Amino acid sequence: MNLPNPADLLPEMATALEAHLAQRQISEPRFIGIRTGGVWVAQALLDALGRDDALGILDVSFYRDDFTQNGLHPQVQPSELPFEIEGQHLVLIDDVLMSGRTIRAALNELFDYGRPASVTLVSLLDLNARELPIRPDVVGSTLSLAANQRVKLTGPTPLTLDLQTLAH
């Protein structure tokens, strides 16, 4: 399987995001990336949009519902939100949407900071493997993988996608 090149997807995603925000009459969105890959995609997307907005960073490790099963990731860092959440129009960005559990965790964390006016979800890849009813508003590409396959984003520059096969 040939994976798409993120550099090819980002300009289309930027155009789609601008159209989505304009349709919803959102003129001052706040951008938030989910650590780590989502932050890389968010920064690349801001660059593609020609924006230098402050970028919020979420680390959802403590909010995941599988925290007790998987334990704590050794690289947990605090979230950094350099703006208010209450009443803001947020653009939440992640690299790969798989089960939807990371996005659910991100929403739970964001609502602990306040009630946003809206949340637009942007994802570089949608793997069509949802366990929760969560869909991106803007997506770079949609893929269907075998059960033992995963996609890993490496970066931040250049952003590249690698197909990994899990051992059984």
Automatic annotation (TrEMBL):
Q: Which residue range or ranges hold the Phosphoribosyltransferase domain?
A: 19-139
Alphabetical list of InterPro entries matching this protein: PRTase-like, PRTase_dom, PyrR_bifunctional
Which superkingdom is the protein from?
Bacteria
Could you tell me which Pfam families the record lists for this protein?
Pribosyltran
Q: Which GO terms describe its molecular function?
A: glycosyltransferase activity
Q: Which UniProt keywords apply?
A: Glycosyltransferase, Transferase
Coiled coil feature spans: none
- The protein depicted here goes by the name Pyrimidine operon attenuation protein / uracil phosphoribosyltransferase
